[in-house]
UniProtKB/TrEMBL annotation:
UniProt name for this protein: Myo-inositol-1-phosphate synthase
Swiss-Prot/TrEMBL GO biological process terms: inositol biosynthetic process; phospholipid biosynthetic process
UniProt record similarity statement: Belongs to the myo-inositol 1-phosphate synthase family.
Source lineage: Bacteria, Pseudomonadati, Thermodesulfobacteriota, Syntrophobacteria, Syntrophobacterales
GO function term, MF aspect, one: inositol-3-phosphate synthase activity
Keywords associated with the record: Membrane, Transmembrane, Transmembrane helix
Domain (Myo-inositol-1-phosphate synthase GAPDH-like) ranges: 255-367
Name of a matching Pfam family: NAD_binding_5
SUPFAM superfamilies recorded: Glyceraldehyde-3-phosphate dehydrogenase-like, C-terminal domain, NAD(P)-binding Rossmann-fold domains
Organism in which the protein naturally occurs: Desulforhabdus amnigena
Record field: transmembrane: 20-39
Length: 452
């Protein structure tokens, strides 16, 4: 239940004035550099923010005959792209220009016009521990060698960044590598247990959690773009609520999983059965290298596998979905770079059990799909903090492969339900009616028998 008394609705929502700092662990990566360069190109009028709901999306208001469909960015008070400033950390010292060139996502024609801007983006030294990301060996790392000192060093970085850039508010978004698979343990159960574990230099705490603690202790919302455990533990949810901060995660929904959450709801809504779904990818960027380690891949695999189970609900439809075989693999193949190719072989069955096959060959660009999600998440999380929405931002499930959710609820993976949830949240915040697509009044005979 929303505690309305804590929320600022409609004209009470604090205006998005001043600079909004975007703090990115992993700022030298493919997703980060594609996002930052893209925002700058859009600001300069040199490119279009395709894929971004906040920039291009509209929202229908009222009944269909009212024909009210404003742009989302004109409907809710979002920060302007001109007010975004970028900072972050990486274990490689490369500046934004060098990092974007290394990532090989954007062409020179997109990088050269903003060369000076990108050169000005220099990473801060990372908090890094190779036990959690085995295939990277960058040396641009903080000297502090205990966890508490590392948290404090990150907080000092944040303070300095805010001061130097005159930021009114900040958002932290993890675009760093996928860490090895971790399970929620007793040290993650409460803020007290987590803080004690940090003080005791507990070896089970990964860097991503230290960034999240530093963010929240600095009053900054945290978004997790990787499948890492990070804020998906009770201690972090408690910390977010204590500090009245929104958190969201995890793992940007791009590529193959995006396709899965588009196709699977359609098959299910037509009551078509599934015998097997075989998914494989080839990927040659640094993310692919990290995922070539089996422990990091396990984190990703868990994130990718859960999707179908929740969408298809085999417990409700045993004759259609009880025993389907689901396999996901990622193969590191350097020549392909960031241009991932995802194949899906889907074995379905229809009327009387007759088998059919669907093949998907998605020749996508990983970071091109991820960058607009980063932008939308930053702007919506900033809105959430100004509205006073704290804790898990489930309305942003739309953007994630493994949406965070309350313990007693199952996550919503269906892209279309997620989209409706997001837009209805915006309508609610702005005092507009929810759109349920109910439509029974369509058939009623009265003077107002308009198409609804
Ligand atoms: N479509 C997508 O690209 C996509 C989709 C979903 C999730 N993700 C996730 O987003 C993250 C970024 O993806 P990418 O393709 O940009 O990968 P990348 O390897 O290009 O970038 C990650 C960056 O994080 C840095 N890093 C690692 N650990 C760090 C730490 N402790 N502190 C600071 N920096 C650190 C690395 O040096 C690297 O520069 C990955 O976890 C990936 O799994 C990406």
């Amino acid at each position: 239940m929303l505690k309305e008394k804590n929320l600022k609705l409609k004209e009470q929502i604090t205006a998005p004035t001043g600079k909004l700092g975007v703090l990115i662990p992993g700022i030298g990566g493919a997703v980060s550099t594609t996002f930052i360069a893209g925002v700058e190109l859009v600001r300069k009028g040199l490119a279009s923010p395709i894929g971004s709901l906040t920039q291009l999306g509209t929202i229908r208001l009222g009944k269909r005959f009212e024909r009210r469909s404003p742009r989302i960015k004109d409907f809710v008070p979002l920060a302007s792209l001109d007010d975004l400033v970028f900072g972050g950390w990486d274990l490689y010292e490369a500046n934004g220009y060098e990092a974007a060139m290394f990532a090989r996502v954007l062409k020179r024609e997109h990088i050269e016009p903003i060369k000076d801007f990108l050169r000005g983006i220099t990473p801060m030294k990372a908090v890094f521990d190779r036990r959690f990301v085995k295939n990277l060996d960058g040396k641009y790392i903080k000297e502090e060698n205990n966890l508490r000192a590392q948290v404090e060093a990150l907080k000092e970085d944040i303070r300095r960044f805010k001061d130097q850039n005159g930021c009114e508010r900040c958002i932290m978004i993890w675009c760093g590598s996928t860490e090895v698979y971790l399970q929620c343990e007793e040290i993650h159960q409460s803020v007290e247990a987590l803080q004690k574990a940090i003080d005791a230099n507990d070896s089970r705490i990964p860097p991503s959690m230290l960034y999240a603690v530093a963010a929240m202790e600095s009053g900054i919302p945290f978004i997790n773009g990787a499948p890492n455990l990070t804020v998906d533990v009770p201690a972090m949810v408690e910390m977010a609520s204590q500090n009245n901060l929104p958190i969201a995660g995890k793992d940007f929904k791009t590529g193959q999983t995006l396709m899965k959450t588009i196709l699977a709801p359609g098959l299910k809504s037509r009551m078509l059965g599934l015998e097997g779904w075989y998914s494989t990818n080839i990927l040659g960027n640094r993310d692919g290298l990290v995922l070539d380690d089996k422990d990091s891949f396990k984190t990703k695999e868990e994130s990718k596998l859960s999707v179908l189970e929740y969408i298809l609900q085999p417990q409700l439809y045993p004759s259609l979905y009880k025993n389907y075989y689901h396999k996901v693999t990622i193969n590191y193949y350097p020549p392909r770079g960031d241009n991932k190719e995802g194949w899906d072989c889907i074995d379905i069955f229809g009327w009387l059990g007759y088998p059919m096959q669907i093949k998907v060959d998605f020749q996508c660009r990983d970071s091109i799909l991820a960058a607009p999600l980063v932008l939308d998440l930053v702007l919506f999380m900033d809105l959430a903090q100004r509205v006073g929405l704290s804790g898990i931002q489930e309305w942003l499930s739309f953007y994630f492969k493994s949406p965070m959710h309350k313990e007693n609820l199952y996550p919503e993976h269906d892209l279309f339900i997620q989209s409706m949830k997001l837009k209805n949240t915006l309508r609610y915040l702005m005092g507009e009616d929810q759109i349920t697509h109910f439509g029974l009044d369509y058939y009623m005979k009265d003077d107002e028998n308009e198409e609804k």
